[in-house]
Structure formats: C-alpha cells, structure tokens
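Give me structure tokens for this 117-residue protein.
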Amino acid sequence: MGRLKDLRNNRGLTQERLAVEIGTSQQTISRIEAKGDLIPVDLLVRLSKYYNVSVDYLLGLSEEKYNQASRDRMTEYMEKYDTEFTQYDTLTPEYQEIVKSVIHTLYDLQEKQNRES
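Here you go.
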C-alpha cells in the first residue's frame, strides 16, 4: 500500500513509531506496506483518524484525501494559524525542514512526558 508508506514518510515516521502511535506492531505495518496485506477494519479506522484522511483514500478507492469533516478541520486550522502558515511558506526548504523537526521533537517529548505521568 504505497499511500500508507507515503503518508508515514511524509510525517518522518519510522514503522516502529507509527506502530506505537496507532497501537499495533511494526511487523503489521511492514506487511501492509510491503505486501499489501489486508488491513483489519479497526486498524484502517485508526490509520484514517491518525492521518486525517478518508478510508477511501487509504484503500485507493478515491483520489480525494479528505472527507468533509477533515476539510472543515483544515479550514479551521488555516483560519486559526493563518499568520504562521504564511510565515512558514516564506521560509527556505531547509528552514521548513527545521520547523518540521522541531515540531516532531516537541511532540515526542510531550508523548514521553504523558507516558511517564
């Protein structure tokens, strides 16, 4: 399933990290990505929610990534963080990668704190 691998790579996640995030094993992620194994419905729903994309998109039934709820959420984010998005767009690709790295690092730190508490 190329779309799943693309979504994972776009977020800079390893198979292990994604597996932890959605509550499955690295082996399951690997089998789905490499062999196109059938995805259990509960895992499909978790992946859809995690990536904020439609199930149809994950299954290759649609080129539309987002359902209406996802579009509404993205519109809300765009309105809320308009200045930040505009500033991000003016950064060089190298600085954009640094911003992404900082966000991933902060997320990981927060997750670690949540697990420890």
